[in-house]
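Practice problem: tRNA pseudouridine synthase D
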Amino acid sequence: MNGEDDTTAAPDASAVSSNNEPAIDPHEDEMEQSVGISEYLSDTGFSAVSKARYSDFLVHEVDLQGNVARLTSMTVPTEDNNNNETTAPSPADDDKKLDMVVEEEEEEEIDLETQLTRMIKEQHTAKKVLSMLEVHDDVTEGESTDKTAEKFVTLPALEKGDRKAVHEWVRKALPNARADTLDGHIRIWHVKFEREMPNYGNFGPNNNNNSNNNNRKPKRQNPIGQLSRKGSRGARIGYAGMKDKRGITTQFCTLYRTVPSQLVNPKAVASSMGGGNTKDRGFSVVRLGNFEYTSKELKLGMLKGNRFDIILRNVQAPGDDLASQRHVLEQAAQSMKDKGFINYFGTQRFGKFKDTHLVGIAAVQGNFEEAVDILMRPKSDEREDIKQVRVEWQERFKYGKNKENEANAAKSTSRKLNRFMTGEVAILQSLAKYPMDYTRAFSAIPFNLRTMFVHAVQSLIWNRAVSYRIGKMSKDSVLVGDLVDVGKGSETVHVVTEVDIANKKFTLEDVVVPMVGKKSVYPTNELGDFILQLLEEVGLKKEMFQDNKCRSLIVTGDYRKIICHPTDVDYKIQEYFDPLQPLLQTDLMKLQDENIVIRAQQEGERAKLAMVVGFTLPSSSYATIALRELMRRPTSNEFQKDLTLE
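Answer key — structure tokens:
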């Protein structure tokens, strides 16, 4: 977008069969199966790449009144404007909050060589740095290093601000490197030679010099944090819900006792259409607009849902020609319009490492030592330095299981983790003071994170129960003993009777399945018995949700509809030739009058097929699960990585 390539590197085509399907059952996925996601309503499906570009996934928040958050203006109202709707509140006007639309665009993913070249303006030097690091990485412990290999590479002279940017980049992007500055020139060393650096020893967690520190992470581009820093001192930022990290998202925000000029530089808006450019990307990550004053402050949950507009690229559907493939896509879209989709909790509900529910199970059992161990153990997809820190923690009792060894290990380990590892850091800080008190340590985790563990347990049981209900009992009929929600709240569920069935009083879209809790009502048919069996399989009983040493793990229970019916479903089937061809106008493109222009076909090119689909979902449903039903294919990262854009 805006002249920048926001693509993700295409996966290795060798892992893909000739029709762009992974060489496994295309309808099943091990990750989805492990969290209970296994069934479909539709009979027609196709394969496609989703989220190939950030601009392939647009999200617009829908407020409680049904208004869609769209960035249509970035005009900054002035404080002396006579229009009452845009006049800034006085400091004494406590009821006024600034309401605005915030559009966040994730930064593109670029290879390391290109990133460094952009900063130092010398591609050959960037190549030299990465080559030097690679040479020393290839030498295993105990082997001798090529004596002709350089220990460091000196970069060209840079201004102070540019040097700071390079140091920050090294910290973020090169865990095997250290950097220092000599006479205005940055030198990048391989980490194995850091003892030879003049300022060796200045890499502690509290050190603020320009040299690299592998235990520190640069600040993330957090839009809420940016607004907080620019707003009035102590300004409260209100927002209704979290948004997808990978995509372009637009939402409403309120800022207490703040005027627009504090947030946006009007000159920057006029010149760049974004409020200013980032240092190395050429475009702004966060744009603000549609300012107005309101007396209502936004809080979490104050939204009706989200509008999604999504591009599915390189569609592979049954059929010998484009016309027959188009027919398959139309059938799939019509099926989702007519039937909706199974309202599964998506895989993201179970955490980055898909072990959130395992922590929750141990905690609900009251086995907090096990819960802490699962949270702290090494993760397969984690950075190697963090993985090593976790291994060191596991070996804390190597010389004896006692409080002193654990306290010392907790102090040491907590300093090596980054500050975004909130749960782990909280546990270690507690164990440093109160070693081997795992109940206290688990309770030290922030409340919202603790509740995520028990919610993941509820989600696992719910997913598996619904898969049984759809797959083994019926996927299109209401059954005697089902639960239906006839109102709001846990006291208004109704058990379906034979009379209800005879009168066709309910449809499958009325059926709910309980999220287990101390007040949950269970279906009176075989599904109720199956839910109790599921609890037993994972080592739980329904009574465990009623009494727990950690009060945040005591949950009342709730009910969730098994079918979600998206509204405002529309789609367009588009032929294109460039694999990364923009196919969807973002709000910013509309503001800049940038239209979608399909590149002309080049000699030897075959037309590719894309589907641009849009729909609106309630706030508790997942777009990835809707896409899963539409395509009748898994949408997990593990499945998607084996698909290609060509």
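Discussion: The mean pLDDT is 81. Students who identified this feature from the tokens alone can consider the problem solved.
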